[in-house]
Amino acid sequence: MTALRVVDLEAGYEPGLPIVRGTSLAVEPNEIVAVLGPNGAGKSTLIKAIAGLVPVSAGKVLLHDRDITGRAAHHLAHEGLGFVPQTENVFVNLSIEDNLDLAASILKVPKKQRLRDLYDLFPDLARQRRLLAGRLSGGQRQMLAVARALVGEPKVLMLDEPSAGLSPKLVGIVFEKLLDVRATGVTIVLVEQNVKAALAIADRGAVLVEGSTRIVGTARDLAGDPQVAALYLGQHRGGS
Ligand SMILES: Nc1ncnc2c1ncn2[C@@H]1O[C@H](COP(=O)(O)OP(=O)(O)OP(=O)(O)O)[C@@H](O)[C@H]1O
């Protein structure tokens, strides 16, 4: 069963002005898929539409064959879909522990065991659990955002530009952690401008151009394809 399937999706911020225009994508269980493409291609809009944060005007989104098209974001956490927004993804005035506690309360998951599991996965967060999230470094804050999204034990985790604002070293550390998350059985979809880093951890990549999927291939093929690089990936930040 496909973990996440997007079929001919159309979505946008205003009626009659779709930004995502007929995008299709299938993500298999336990895969890491990177959604790439030039600035303004609609990558963030696509992931937000899947996450129930941007109105969908046509097409379908299936999570493990269940139709979740247009389901509001707060329902999707209960359906097994986690989402890490690009910004404002933690409560800066709360401690690490309170951020995770709050997520557990909202989702009504057994707090103690789940937080213990997450602290095992993120030992740096465990060590600093009483620290305010606003005092964390960029990389640690991103780890907390990922941990928050994992509180509800999603089967599929989507991340909007997890490398944004991070130094290359921290990108490496955060992306390594995503491999650990995948090893726990989670399927991952990430939108990235940092093509090199994303393809280094992804199994496959999907190149979005003007709101539709133009190329889908293995990460290895995409990374080595000069035409792909020249046509679509030339404008990205952070790496050649
Ligand atoms: N909240 C919004 N309201 C209206 N239009 C928006 C909004 N957010 C994005 N857009 C528009 O949607 C288009 C696609 O933006 P989107 O952020 O999805 O692209 P992207 O591929 O993620 O690009 P980038 O990599 O630069 O973030 C752009 O033309 C943008 O101006």
Task: Provide the descriptors you would attach to this structure in a database record.
globular, six-stranded mixed beta sheet, 10 strands, binds adenosine-5'-triphosphate, disordered C terminus, alpha/beta, four-stranded antiparallel beta sheet, 240 residues
List the helices and strands and how they pair.
Elements: E1 4-11, E2 20-27, E3 32-36, H1 43-50, E4 56-63, E5 66-67, H2 73-79, E6 81-84, H3 96-107, H4 111-121, H5 123-127, H6 138-150, E7 156-160, H7 168-183, E8 187-191, H8 195-201, E9 204-209, E10 212-218, H9 219-223, H10 226-232
Parallel strand pairs: 3-8, 3-9, 6-7, 7-8
Antiparallel strand pairs: 1-2, 1-4, 4-5, 9-10
The chain binds adenosine-5'-triphosphate.
